[in-house]
Design a protein that fits this description.
By secondary structure, the protein is α+β, with helices and mostly antiparallel strands. The chain has 27 helices and 23 strands. α1 crosses α2. The two termini are 70 Å apart.
Length: 880
């Protein structure tokens, strides 16, 4: 195909013209010489042409030489032009240090916040997981009959997936959440976070080990007790003792320490101990114990859809052969990176959007100041253009000044981001997934540099184009700085609108946190202590009498404390997880639904102050061998016996209790109805619950939390005394203590972090908006000195002059506030996912934002307004 002809550039056309002119001049010189020697002019032209040879070839040679010359000189000219522009920019900075420092500070604030937030977003959302070939790691989800996928799986289902698939090179399961295990044998007993793994976990994840090795699968299957530890545990607890180290006693069982996981490769996050366990098949109702999370590694060439189809076909076979399995309606396969990030993605994107708004406000702010300065420099620009300066050359000069300021501000902002990264990581490392992986490196620094250039161009280009828009000669001889308008006021209104968006969002989150704290939990957390103990010593294994005696001793020793009012016991106290069981009320071996399941003892309802709405509490009648009983929550009663009296009804929990009663869960009689409780914190909803007395199912009472109600304010010494008293009952056990208010606070740490950051960004936006208003009004007052002098000379008092300035500012800020309120209302759906119990259209948030902007505007405009009011008419008129 013929090549499409290219249009010559302007420079190429100039070179062609120059070559033609030079060739013609050389030819004419030769002709003149020959004519002077006596040749006829026509003959002389012919002879001169013959001497030059092929004119086209000569012309091409001349043009090539010109092109080479332009290439050599062009780079030098550009560098020299850039040097001159920077020199001029530095001179202007030195001439106006106040404006320069203000601009650099605004750039530093916007770029510093943006770079810092990018460090988080990059580390959590953009970077791949640190494991080898992490793009092939997947999470395997169960699928219910409704078609919804969820991350919990049962060992029985995974066992069949692992052995029947053709698209995974390996897979494994691990505890759904890190579990607390009691560690002894290395000083005073303590509790550490652990996961139990089944299958080829370390092979699947390819977790590198600092020392040691993964235990052989045959040894694990044979029942060997092994543990791998984190590098921090190795340093802090074992003092980096060479392996093999003495066995660790975990929950009363000796485990051989076989390996140390390299720092930064802990999975799941926060785990200190990994306990490989054997896997075994499960059938029937056992398939429905979804207590694990499953991970896999795609085989070479396999894709997510292929793996999902492959595993779902296995799930179809399970459902056909074992109809009691209710979670075998397919398998959902997702990238593990998405699983790790989880629910963090939406709020991180919201925060990144908020900080991007801060940067946009900063750029808008500087552009507004640029328009104001451009009005002052219009006569200078006009003079330069009338003397022959091209428009693009003037624009480049003006833009270089802004880019220099942006570069200096960006350098300072990146430095601030680097210095703040460590503090940021320490604040969010346990809140944000992959928080411990966050780091400031050249990638983040490069992002900061790029943002600096973009911010400088965004802030500097519109004012520069506007300053050169009118041309040159038309402006000479007249004052372009006259006029009553405030230069850049439209941009000020724009940045105010963006600030309103941020302030409203921050206010909504503050209101949301307040609304959460006002929720009724169903119990009273004030002055309530939680002391957790696990009976992991061998002396308690299979010894029901010793287990019950220990819990009786706990109640006895607490009652000797004069500050304690009552004490209860619970397997899963509120805020510390919980069990859930299928519930059967009809007796046809088919579950009628599910409910929360909790084993309790002592004066649990009194200590927690959970109201007993009907019936009775557990008492000495409810012993092992007596009639099995239960207390249900009001929500469970309404769900299973609507319109009926639940007292006397019978219910059983097959998936939770069958194991402890030889495969047949007992029928329990409902003897009481308790109030509903938000067991998982302020931001959770009440769920139906059934409570079982601990004396009737001792096998589930091995680890419990004593809930202790104090008569007075619970202090740290009180809490420590309770811990010591219970520790003294059996020094070999690990005892942990905390207050319920602390536990509830931990549940809100994520929301509190989001709120803190967003409020911080909103505060930065308010600061930038105030600086923008101040800067633009200051320029306007400087331009209108003569006008203010005339007004003063004609009798205007100072308050009227000041009011004129503040009123002008309030007019444009008011317009921006209205724009911002409309913008916020239109985009309110973005923040709805973060709100509970309040509406994103709550008028209080909008009113608070408007009031804040009004007060900030008055404060920012007061200084230049006062300066305008103090103008001396004689001085002001003579200055013109």
């Amino acid at each position: 195909m013929p090549r499409r002809p290219r249009l010559p550039s302007i420079r190429a056309t100039d070179r062609a013209r120059e070559a033609d002119e030079e060739l013609q001049a050389h030819l004419q010189l030769n002709v003149d010489d020959l004519v002077a020697d006596g040749h006829d002019p026509a003959e002389a032209r012919r002879m001169a042409a013959e001497r030059l040879g092929d004119l086209h070839a000569v012309r091409d040679a001349v043009e090539r030489a010109a092109r080479d010359r332009d290439r050599r000189l062009g780079g030098k000219e550009r560098l020299d032009g850039l040097r001159r522009d920077l020199v001029v920019a530095v001179r202007r900075m030195r001439r106006r240090p106040g404006h320069s420092l203000l601009s650099i500070g605004i750039f530093a604030l916007g770029i510093g916040l943006t770079t810092t937030m990018f460090t988080v977003v990059d580390g959590v959302l953009l970077r791949p997981l640190g494991f080898p070939e992490a793009d092939r790691l997947v999470a395997l989800h169960s699928v219910a009959e409704e078609g919804d996928g969820f991350s919990w799986v049962s060992m029985g289902n995974w066992y069949d997936w692992d052995r029947g698939n053709r698209t995974l090179s390996s897979s494994a399961i691990h505890s759904q959440e890190p579990i607390d295990v009691a560690v002894s044998g290395v000083g005073e007993p303590f509790v550490a976070a652990a996961v139990r793994t089944h299958g080829r976990f370390f092979e699947t994840m390819r977790i590198p080990l600092r020392v040691g090795s993964v235990p052989d699968s045959a040894d694990v299957a044979a029942g060997g007790a092994f543990v791998l530890i984190s590098e921090s545990f190795w340093s802090d607890v074992l003092n980096r003792q060479p392996l093999p180290a003495p066995p660790l006693i975990l929950d009363g069982v000796a485990h051989d320490v076989v390996g140390v996981v390299e720092a930064g490769f802990e999975h799941p996050q926060g785990v200190e101990l990994w306990q490989p366990r054997r896997a075994f098949p499960q059938v029937g109702m056992a398939r429905n114990n979804i207590n694990y999370r499953a991970v896999g590694r795609l085989a070479e060439g396999a894709t997510l859809p292929q793996a999902e189809a492959d595993l779902s076909s296995i799930a179809d076979g399970i459902r056909a052969s074992d109809p009691e399995g209710v979670y075998s309606w397919g398998v959902e396969v997702r990238p593990l990176a998405e699983e790790v990030v989880g629910d963090s993605r939406p709020y991180l994107l919201v925060l990144m959007g908020a900080v991007a708004l801060v940067l946009l406000i900063a750029c808008t702010n500087l552009a507004a100041l640029g328009f104001a300065r451009g009005a002052e420099r219009a006569q200078e620009v006009a003079l330069r253009m009338s003397l022959g300066a091209r428009r693009e050359r003037v624009v480049r000069q003006l833009l270089s000044e802004e880019l220099l300021l942006a570069g200096l501000g960006g350098l300072l902002g990146v430095l601030l981001a680097w210095l703040s990264t460590e503090a940021l990581v320490s604040m969010i490392q346990d809140v944000v997934p992959r928080g411990r992986e966050l780091r400031f490196d050249t990638r983040v620094a490069a992002f900061g540099a790029l943002i600096s250039l973009l911010a400088g161009a965004l802030a500097g280009l519109p004012p520069a184009m506007n300053a050169t828009r009118l041309g040159g000669p038309a402006l000479i001889g007249r004052r372009v700085a006259r006029g009553r308008g405030l230069p850049g006021t439209v941009l000020v209104a724009g940045e105010v609108a963006l600030t309103v968006l941020l302030v409203t969002g921050g206010t909504l989150l503050l209101m949301n946190l307040s609304a959460l704290g006002a929720r009724d939990l169903g119990y009273e957390p004030e002055n309530l202590a939680a002391v957790q103990v696990g009976l992991v010593s061998e002396r308690y294994q299979g010894a029901s009498d010793r287990v019950l005696a220990y819990w009786d001793d706990v109640a006895r020793v607490v009652e000797t404390n004069p500050a304690a009012e009552s004490v209860g016991l619970a397997t899963w106290a509120p805020t510390a997880g919980g069990g859930r069981s299928f519930v059967d009320v009809r007796g046809d071996d088919q579950p009628d639904g599910g409910a929360g399941y909790r084993v309790i003892g002592g004066e649990y309802f009194e200590a927690m102050r959970i109201p007993l709405l009907q019936g009775r509490a557990f008492d000495e009648r409810d012993q092992d061998g007596a009639e099995p009983v239960t207390i249900v929550s009001q929500q469970m009663a309404d769900e299973f016996w609507p319109g009926q009296n639940p007292i006397g009804q019978r219910v059983r929990a097959p998936s939770m209790e069958s194991y402890f009663f030889d495969g047949e869960a007992p029928w329990r009689t409902v003897v009481g109805v308790a109030g509903d409780v938000r067991h998982y914190g302020y931001d959770s909803d009440p769920e139906g619950q059934m409570y079982v007395p601990h004396r009737q199912i001792v096998g589930m009472s091995m680890s419990m939390t004593a809930t202790i109600r104090m008569r007075q304010e619970l202090t740290a010494p009180d809490l420590e005394r309770l811990r010591r008293d219970i520790q003294s009952l059996d020094p070999s056990l690990a005892v942990r203590s905390s207050t319920f208010e602390e536990r509830l606070g931990d549940r809100l740490v994520e929301r509190r972090m989001i709120m803190t950051l967003l409020v911080g960004f909103a505060t930065a936006g308010l600061l930038l908006a105030s600086l923008g208003v101040y800067g633009v009004i200051s320029h306007a007052v400087a331009r209108r000195t003569r006008e203010m002098a005339i007004r003063s000379a004609l009798g205007a008092n100072r308050s009227r002059v000041a009011g004129l300035v503040i009123g002008g500012a309030m007019r444009w800020v008011g317009i921006g506030t209205v724009m911002g309120l409309v913008l916020t209302y239109g985009g309110r759906g973005i923040i709805d996912s973060l709100l509970v119990d309040i509406r994103s259209a709550d008028p209080r948030a909008y009113l608070a934002a408007a009031v804040c902007l009004g007060l900030v505007t008055i404060a920012a405009a007061s200084i230049p307004a006062a300066r305008a009011a103090r103008v001396d008419p004689l001085v002001g008129l003579s200055a013109e």
